[in-house]
Write a structure and sequence with these properties.
The structure holds two protein chains of two kinds.
Chain A: H1 10-38, E1 39-40, E2 43-44, H2 47-54, H3 56-89, H4 95-104, H5 110-121, H6 127-136, H7 148-173, H8 176-184, H9 189-200, H10 202-218, H11 221-227, H12 235-241, H13 249-274, H14 297-324, H15 341-349, H16 353-383, H17 390-398, H18 405-416, H19 427-451, H20 455-463, H21 468-497, H22 502-505, H23 513-522, H24 526-551
Antiparallel strand pairs in A: 1-2
Chain B: E1 2-11, E2 21-29, E3 33-37, H1 44-52, E4 59-64, E5 67-71, E6 74-75, E7 83-86, H2 98-108, H3 113-126, H4 142-154, E8 160-164, H5 172-189, E9 193-197, H6 200-206, E10 209-214, E11 217-222, H7 224-229, H8 234-239, E12 244-253, E13 256-262, E14 266-272, H9 274-278, E15 285-290, E16 296-298, E17 307-318, E18 322-329, E19 332-339, E20 349-354, E21 360-363
Helix pairs in contact in B: 2-3, 2-4, 3-4
Classes of the chains: A mainly alpha, B alpha+beta.
Chain lengths: ~550, ~375
């Protein structure tokens, strides 16, 4: 009779190992986060929460976060939906260009976008204000970005592309025959949009509202760069302030947990609202696209859409690049003032310059590689029906989606700054944050790639005489390679651009590009801010372009 | 009264060098069903979209109820043509109930609630969905969705009903049943209709007027029976069912009949229509189309037969009531359908014959 160990199948061992690693990665920080929020010097109590809800500046921060979230969600979704409709459903000119610009916004980290806005419209440093003062001789700038209104504008500019993606995908997937049917029955193009297309896109609309809200509430860069100087505080900036010496991890945990709870609650509401009533319809011939003819209005539409992407994408990035190459002067423009001095400074003179770039690359590479491997194993395990509780693995992989990066970072600090393993102050803790926070994307990518590989493909090889391992190597591996690679690239790019977790986890020895940029920003070294940001953008673009070359067009979609 | 008229319609697409519709003219009379039949890519769906107003013609004009709705480079938008259309995908709106789907067009016409309810109910009765008004499309079958699409199109009393391969997503049994129902409904309502399909059996059942299209032009149009029995071109003969198409040169052409010299076989006499006769002269390449059922098999040469050829049975395929013989005479392989009672063993010598009027002279294409 076989002993108990003989009954442990190899796939069970893999499953248990994967689940354990995931539990340590995901659950441990969450557990410590919750425990920390109840921990005070006098033992476990609700004192931290009491403090959070009693102190005025925390109340204000929560109110401001809510305002910021709602305003960004409403305006962001409106703008995103309008642009998505114009681009995918009408005969507006320059559709392609507009779409490319909106998608281009994704290549720019949110905090870089915020800093660009300061370089553009800050009261003293802002180029627009400098031009205004030079032109009018006025001693005051035209626009002051340092206000709640300014913060909202920047947040809207940051989140609207997300709404655009949801709505654009929905409109593109919708059968045009749905709208054509309404037109033939006598509905005008606009009416067909409001009675047919928009209601059909309702699931995407709900998703757009919720995701833009969550994105805006979780922003750290914009509130830190724009809100703090204006004395407008939100939850994320207050969590950060609690880490100033002496750090109050318990309070930070109590303040950030509600953020995670709101995220979980809204994702749950979204599930509830959309539910299983996804509208799947029989597709028609597709083929030719009936676009709503806007008549002469199409030029107005193109003007409005063009202005939106000019202001949100072209202008901030143009200013960023310009300022990185231009001497800091307040005089009039002169060609002689172009200079490489800022780059020379951040690369060779600034003490944190090169180390931060190296640290960013090392942590991003490590996070991407481990995330991709772990996601691959998890995807395999979770797709095998034979493994018990395989769903747990998938759940653990997806859970970080519901935890804002900064909240997760608080959990990591609570876990690894005391006790058995002290990781605070190492690059490892940064890599852990990047890895875990982005694990869902790597998992989705691998999972989708695996789903597209029908088991019959592998079986066909087996029937022809290949061993299980050989079938895996010859058939399945090449087919999912693209999914794995695109997952890797997403994690790598996301790791490089993170600020909100890094800002809680870095120390002077482990500074990364994003935190270095914030340091020179606080020192008002605008040229250095611009130069380092351009370097960050360049690394990002190179990574994505390399993926583009390797995978073909759909670098960021799993089934490339 | 003519409900729809297409006059020399031309349509080009920017990315294609050749026009997809090249000078198309046809008309639909009151209560008539016109079927556009052709292989995929022949332009039949494009034609329908031009009529619907989903596309604009580059040349020619389109008239609905005698009123011009489209001309070179312009067209009334679809919502101002008073048409009903049933799409291949049904395009039944999933966020509206069956009732709401059907009522939509009436609401746009600002009718009173009572009137809308009455007419929607009548339309639902007509398509046998009387009790399903409160259901959502996801709660009914594909065949029922099809009926909703039909009710939605006819409830507004359109000038013209457009049907774009409406049955192609249904299974075979349901398709045949719906064909007959659709025809009955269209007759009952006296609606003029255009029906697009690539299924020749469907076309035969439904068409009052059959238009066979190929590469953007009309290959032949007329009553379905006439087109089937007297194809004008080799393409039409082949497209509408199985046929034996013998290619040769015209040696003699009279009124109503002609002789063809078929290499490797001999002389063939067959029916010549005036239309085809006008396009042919002695020495031209042409074909003769003879349906498998029109051929006769015998062991000895039939007396008095004009067209009789010796051959050898290569294969015998039992089809049920009929048996198909593949017979070889020289370079020609015949397909012959005869009643299953008669039996010729594979390998045996036979005579194939047919009456001149059983064959049709067709243009080479």
């Amino acid at each position: 009779m076989p002993g108990p160990l003989a009954r442990v199948r190899p796939q069970d061992a893999v499953w248990v190992a994967a689940a354990l690693i995931l539990a340590v990665l995901v659950l441990l920080p969450v557990y410590h986060l919750i425990v920390a929020s109840f921990t005070t010097r006098d033992g476990l109590s609700l004192a931290n929460y009491a403090q959070i809800f009693r102190v005025r500046r925390f109340q204000e921060a929560m109110l401001n976060s809510f305002l910021l979230g709602v305003a960004s969600s409403v305006f962001g979704t409106a703008i995103g939906t309008l642009l998505a409709w114009l681009v995918s459903r009408t005969n507006m000119p320059w559709r392609r260009l507009i779409r490319v610009c909106v998608l281009g916004c994704f290549a720019v980290p949110a905090f870089v976008n915020a800093l660009s806005w300061v370089l553009l419209a800050g009261p003293n440093a802002g180029s627009l204000n400098q031009i205004w003062m030079a032109l009018t001789g006025s001693r005051e700038g035209l626009i002051n970005i340092f206000s709640l209104g300014g913060l909202i504008v920047v947040a809207v500019a940051t989140v609207f592309p997300l709404a655009f993606i949801f709505m654009h995908n929905a409109f593109e997937a919708m059968d045009t025959e749905m709208e054509q049917a309404a037109r033939l029955l006598g509905a005008s193009g606009i009416r067909a949009f409001f009675t047919i297309a928009l209601p059909l896109a309702r699931p995407a609309l709900i998703a757009a509202f919720i995701m833009t809200f969550l994105e805006a509430v979780a922003l750290y860069g914009a509130p830190a760069a724009i809100g703090v100087p204006a004395r407008v505080y939100v939850i994320t900036t207050q969590v950060w302030s609690l880490f100033e010496y002496p750090p109050q991890v318990g309070m930070a945990a109590a303040l950030s947990l509600p953020l995670a709870l709101i995220t979980v609650a809204l994702l749950w509401v979204q599930r509830l609202l959309i539910g299983r009533r996804g509208f799947s319809t029989v597709r028609g011939k597709g083929g030719r696209w009936l676009r709503t003819d806007l008549g002469a209005w199409r030029w107005v539409a193109a003007g409005v859409a063009g202005l939106i992407v000019f202001v949100t994408f072209v202008l901030p990035n143009a200013v960023l690049v310009f300022r990185s190459f231009y001497r800091e002067t307040y005089g009039s423009f002169s060609v002689g003032d172009f200079t490489l001095a800022h780059y020379k400074y951040v690369l060779f003179d600034y003490i944190d310059g090169l180390p931060s770039i190296r640290n960013s690359l090392v942590t991003a590479l490590a996070a991407a590689t481990f995330a991709a491997l772990l996601a691959l194993i998890a995807a395999f395990v979770s797709r095998r029906r034979s493994v018990r509780f395989a769903g747990v693995v998938a759940f653990l992989c997806m859970l970080p989606l519901a935890i804002p990066a900064m909240v997760f970072a608080v959990g990591l600090v609570a876990t690894y700054s005391g006790g058995w393993i002290v990781l605070y102050g190492t690059l490892t803790i940064l890599a852990l944050a990047y890895l875990t926070k982005n694990l869902p994307y790597a998992f989705m990518s691998c999972n989708a790639a695996l789903a597209s590989v029908h088991t019959d493909l592998e079986s066909a090889a087996r029937v022809l005489g290949a061993s299980q391992l050989r079938a895996l190597r010859n058939i399945t591996a090449p087919l999912i390679r693209n999914g794995l690679l695109s997952g890797w690239i997403v994690v790598f790019a996301n790791s490089l651009r993170d600020l909100s977790a890094s800002v809680l986890l870095y120390t002077s020895a482990t500074t990364v590009i994003s935190t270095a940029i914030m340091d020179v920003y606080y020192a008002s070294q605008w040229g250095a801010v611009a130069a380092l940001s351009v370097i960050l953008l360049a690394i990002n673009v190179v990574a994505i372009a390399a993926g583009y070359r390797m995978l073909g067009r759909n670098v960021l979609s799993p089934n490339a | 009264m003519v409900k729809l008229e297409l006059i020399d319609v031309v349509k080009r697409f920017a990315n294609q060098p050749q026009a997809v519709i090249r000078g198309l003219s046809t008309a639909v009379g009151e209560g008539q069903m016109l079927v556009l039949l052709g292989p995929s890519g022949c332009g039949k769906t494009t034609t329908l979209q031009l009529v619907a107003g989903l596309l604009e013609p580059d040349d020619g004009s389109i008239l609905v109820d005698g009123k011009q709705v489209a001309g070179p480079g312009w067209g009334l938008p679809p919502e101002r043509r008073n048409l009903g259309m049933v799409f291949q995908s049904y395009a039944v709106w999933p966020h509206k109930t069956v009732f709401e789907n059907v009522a939509y067009g009436l609401q746009l016409r600002s009718l009173s609630g009572d009137e809308i309810r009455r007419r929607v109910q009548k339309a639902l009765d007509l398509v046998h969905l009387s009790d399903l008004g409160a259901r959502y499309p996801s709660e009914i079958s594909g065949g029922q969705q099809q009926r909703v699409a039909l009710a939605r199109a006819v409830v507004v009393e359109p000038s013209l009903l457009l049907l774009d391969e409406p049955l192609s997503n249904l299974d075979a049994t349901l398709r045949e049943q719906m064909r007959i129902e659709l025809k009955a409904l269209q007759r009952q309502l006296g609606l003029a209709a255009i029906y697009v399909t690539h299924d020749q059996a469907e076309a035969m059942v439904l068409a009052d007027h059959l238009v066979v299209m190929r590469d953007g032009v009309i290959e032949q149009q007329g009553r379905a029976e006439d087109v089937f029995l007297r194809p004008r071109t080799g393409f039409v003969a082949r497209f509408l069912g199985v046929t034996n198409l013998l290619m040769g040169r015209v040696t003699e052409a009279g009124s109503r009949s002609a002789r063809l010299d078929v290499p490797g076989l001999g002389v063939v006499s067959a029916f010549l229509s005036d239309d085809v006769g006008r396009s042919l002269k002695i020495g031209d390449a042409a074909g003769a189309s003879i349906r498998p059922l029109e051929l006769e098999l015998s062991s000895a040469r039939p007396e008095l037969a004009t067209n009789a050829y010796q051959g050898r049975v290569r294969e015998r395929i039992f089809l049920g009531e009929l048996t198909e013989y593949l017979v070889e005479s020289g370079a020609i392989r015949w397909r012959v359908h005869v009643a299953s009672a008669s039996r010729f063993a594979p390998g045996s010598g036979v005579w194939i014959s047919f009456a001149p009027e059983a064959g049709t002279i067709v243009l080479d294409s």
